[in-house]
Amino acid sequence: MNMLAFAAAPTFAIMALLTGCFGGGPMEMMCSAGPMSALSGMATMYLLMSAFHAAPWLRLMQRWWIAHHG
User: Fold this and answer.
1) What is the residue-level pLDDT of the chain in tens, covering all 70 positions?
2) Which DSSP string corresponds to the chain?
3) CA distance 19 to 25
């Protein structure tokens, strides 16, 4: 199994946490074209990217579950 596939989801989750805690800074303000909504922030984007890259982790957990409970 490609170990690099496991790096994306935690990396994006950490980026979402850091962006949520410390804010996006001036770059986020510069990139926003209009009023900010709850779904338009960088932290939300990082959370979505983390969810989209969670497949390797879910497959690993499924294999573990089957091996121990199946």
Assistant:
1) 688 889 999 999 999 998 888 875 665 555 555 555 555 688 889 999 999 999 999 999 999 999 999 7
2) --GGGGTHHHHHHHHHHHHHHH--HHHHHHH--S---TTSSHHHHHHHHHHHT-HHHHHHHHHHHHHHH-
3) 9
The two tokens of residue 39 are 């779904």
Amino acid at site 35: P
The rounded distance, in Å, linking the Cα atoms of 70 and 64 is 9
Q: CA 58 to CA 41: how far, in whole Å?
A: 26
The alpha carbon of residue 58 and the mean position of all alpha carbons in its chain are separated, in whole angstroms, by 14
Query: How is residue 9 written in tokens?
Result: 């989801």
- The structure's pTM equals 0.70
